[in-house]
Amino acid sequence: xxxxxxxxxxxxxxxxxxxCTTIPVDAHEGNxxxxxxxxxxxxxxxxxxxxxxxxxxxxxxxxxxxGDKQGMEIDVTEHHxxxxxxxLDRYDVLLLNNANGLSDVLPVASRKAVxxxxxxxxxxxxxxxxxxxxxxxxxxxxxxxxxFDSDSTFQKARVIVDPAAKDHPSVKGYGPEFWYTADWSNHxxxxxxxxxxxxxxxxxxxxxxxxxxxxxxxxxxxxxxxHPIAWTTEKHGGRFFYTELGHDVRSLDTQFGRQHLFExxxxxxxxDTRRLPRVLMLGDSISMGYHPAVVSALEGEAxxxxxxxxxxxxxxxxxxxxxxxxxxxxxxDVVHFNFGLHDLKRVQADGGASDDPSDPSQADLKxxxxxxxxxxxxxxxxGATPLFATTTPVPEGKVRPHxxxxxxxxxxxxxxxxxxxxxxxxxxxxxxxxxxxxxxxxPVNVHFTPEGSKALGDKVTESIRGALDQRTKTAH
Length: 476
Prior knowledge:
With 476 residues, this protein is an alpha/beta fold. It folds into two domains: 263 residues, Rossmann fold; 200 residues, Rossmann fold, CATH 3.40.50.1110. The chain contains 14 helices and 14 strands. The strands form two sheets. A nine-stranded mixed β-sheet has the order 2-1-3-4-9-8-7-5-6. Helix 9 packs parallel to helix 10 and helix 10 runs parallel beside helix 11. The protein is elongated, with a radius of gyration of 26 Å.
């Protein structure tokens, strides 16, 4: 059985040719190679780990036929072996046709391949149940922004276009609202306001019964006034487009449905995304505090990535740096990093935090010097431009665990010396914060108020933009 297959009902349309992953594109007989090369290429994946919609094969067939009319080269697979780097790289977009519970059908290697392919600027489109039972794939769950709660029957409802999205090609021309018939899903939470998300459409639950009887008995809940049904997400390096349409062909095979889906595919494949620079942010909880402000400020300018974990001090940093440099496909242009606040804190013999000033630092000055050198060397070896942030001030008083305010200057001085040796730019967050500490830092605490984190984020954003500009000038 070939790895790629066009749905078997295509026997009535014999002009379409069955493709196998082992046959290169130029093996298509009678095709104009230049035309094929110019076509947008879409890989449809429709295997399921949870409930399987009986309409999936019909939708696959419709996608192939309609895609041909739209000038797209669309292939279909249900085998995880087709989600590997050398195959994915042939495609611009991966379309998940009601492909739910994917952690149960895709091995870790396939999921990792999809994540890295997406991070290189590709697109994913999710139809209807693509956001069902994906909790065991945290990356996809984060990309989609929610999971499944319940759904309705096939009903007509009032659809509202988000005013900010009225010119998006997938909804353009349909005015502020219109009526449409589909099966409407209820999600575990609204995606409104999530980083990188732009809601395109919402449905008015007052115009239909949002939870069908089957799910009413199971405790299914409607979403209320804020019920997004289509949105885009730009994060992790690529573009994600989701629509609740696609429970069956009826909701797709209309004038609006065809525009909505295929313009969504084209949007997800936008080549501009692939040219966005990539930024990795490494640091402790201070960095975690200002990271959201940086992501928001650089939206559309750069892809900003950071580990979900607290990077802590240079001991952990040295052990994890190579792993972090490969996050979401690696290939970072700038790495903004900070280590020091954990290094200088006092620890007990077992490594636990200590409030006793007579206990040793987590990493003494000599150890800090050696480990910071190793981290810098790894960043430079990756080809990224390092950007070092100085450690922010420790206030006077009984800060827990114990940190000596004077140590901040000692560790920062070592950091400056290392950066000077390697001609690495410094983002002086210490000087920035010190001049306004009373206004932005919490009392007797190394952490900052929300306003303080936002201010630090603005400063970091400015520094990252400068590093990216300098990198561009050097490249030319």
